[in-house]
Amino acid sequence: MKNYTLLVGLLPAIMVTGAVNAAELYNKNGNKLDLSGQIEGNHYISDDKSEDGDNSFVRFGLMGETQVNDQITGYGFYQAELTASASEDDGDNGSKTRYAYAGLKVGDAGSFDYGRNNGILYDVGGWTDVLPEFGGDSYQQTDVFMTQRAGNLATYRNKNFFNLIDGLDFAVQYQGRNDANDRNKSERNGNGWGMSTTYDLGMGLSLGAAYSSSERTNKQKEDGNGDRANALSTGLKYDENNLYLAALYAQTYNMNLYGGDDRVANKTQNVELVAQYQFESGLQPSLAWIYSKGKNLGHEVGSKYYSSEALANYIDVGANYHFNKNITAKVDYKINMLDNSAFTKDAEISTDDIVSLAIVYQF
């Protein structure tokens, strides 16, 4: 069978870690260093002028590994992104660090690393974050507690439950504070912890669940929503015979931002459904539904009070075409189902559709 079947399983990992299909820079005496990269020419088409236009970027990553002895392996990963849409005279050109962490793996005892990494909730959230361009955003938000990429994360992972139960993985994570009392001055989160478990049942079917609980910063608590931000995410996926299906349900409390003024929803209920099929020709069509309902919002517009409103609701229709493992063309159509109401206008929530057209080169 052609390598397209393998690619459909690898592509999400390529986008997240950049460690697959990497170019080997050095491999000697138990020390390895790999270079990975992604160059994407991407254009958005939308009536929402804040979204419409060039969205091109380049990412590059370095993955290092050293064999300390027959049981201990040291590793580190760094990935940066540079925005290509900014002018050369623009000093703030959108460059950022996506990942930067280092750790140790000790045989069947598991691995431990620290740095900027994926939050523990993404162990399940990543199952539906596989669309050609959009998706993975019902509750997953960058630098919002442990929902997606975030800083100050210490993570312990164990595969196959100490090598006793095949397919049963678990992880425990601690996040240090990022607030006004910390040198980052970011007001992102207080101290928190989380855990996840996933179980590969065989025949392509997996189940997963993740939980996190964090202190909110003093500034965040000024909204009166509560002292802690909590989340629970559950999911299942099927990945076999060129077919990929995934479903996610999650609830968050005092955690998710919405709207242009960075309001915080007291509670959200979130659903993500994804279906994809990989043809041997290289074509991979994709269909998804992403939904987030805000509860107890306490949002007032004039004399009207909004308590329960949809914060995200769209159908996503797209496709990848993999010419080979290095070059992909993709199109993604986000069909926005939100109403253009007084609430969405006041909260600055976009209700416009977006079409993404892109060519991706990766190694």
Automatic annotation (TrEMBL):
SUPFAM superfamilies: Porins (SSF56935). Gene3D superfamilies: Porin (2.40.160.10). InterPro entries: Gram-neg_bact_OMP, Gram_neg_porin_domain, Porin_dom_sf, Porin_gammaproteobac, Porin_Gram-ve. It holds the Pfam family Porin_1. It comes from the Bacteria. Residues 1-22 form the signal peptide. Keywords: Membrane, Signal. It is a multi-pass membrane protein. It is found in: Cell outer membrane. Belongs to the Gram-negative porin family. This is Phosphoporin PhoE. It comes from Pragia fontium. The gene is meoA.
